[in-house]
């Protein structure tokens, strides 16, 4: 195995300063997201979502961001999954985007709420038919005895809906919106002296403050 301690990369592509960012972190996110798209980052909307379970144990997994609107970040999942159970107990989470090609990271944290069923319906029906059926097949995060069980259930669902144009939205599937309270933009710089700008909201205030953090 290669020696991990010898792996080293200096970051030199860009810089981030207070005078070049928007006063609104969602506008700034949109700007960086567009740049990630233009740079050809693979799955630029993939992010790691961290939640905590009822005993405070953390857990992280990768999801796909499906919208930034109404002041928050929207993602979709199974409402009976582990992450959904965590959010039921503790409706707060942290998201982390990594755009290595641009030597950038964005961290977002705040409260999480379920979006409306109507909003989930619109997104659900915009997905390919196979993905809609897939939502009916999988009891996400539950133990299953074999892959074959999954495939049998897939065949059953395909049969069940074969004469229906519209696949109904399962009760246990839908979206969440994370409303940010802190957003940090990280730009890699040379010699590990990276740029970090943190947007945060003081309690009860609507405007954002921007502070520079030591790397
Ligand atoms: C690139 C990528 C994208 C994913 N997107 C989603 C997603 O949008 N929604 C989802 O529920 N799971 C998604 N997953 C699967 C999750 O990482 C995870 O396995 C699943 O949600 C179960 O997590 P949980 O048991 O912590 O609830 C994705 C995985 C990868 C690697």
Describe this structure in words.
The chain is α+β, with helices and mostly antiparallel strands. It has one domain: Electron Transport, Fmn-binding Protein, Chain A (Pnp Oxidase, Chain A), CATH 2.30.110. It is built from five helices and eight strands; from the N terminus they run H-E-E-E-H-E-E-H-H-H-E-E-E. The protein has a six-stranded antiparallel barrel. A hairpin with a 5-residue loop joins strand 1 and strand 2. The longest helix is centred in the N-terminal third of the chain and has 14 residues. Bound molecules: flavin mononucleotide.
Protein topology:
Elements: H1 25-38, E1 46-52, E2 58-69, E3 72-78, H2 82-89, E4 92-99, E5 104-114, H3 117-126, H4 129-137, H5 147-160, E6 173-187, E7 195-200, E8 209-212
Antiparallel strand pairs: 1-2, 1-4, 2-3, 3-6, 4-5, 5-6, 6-7, 7-8
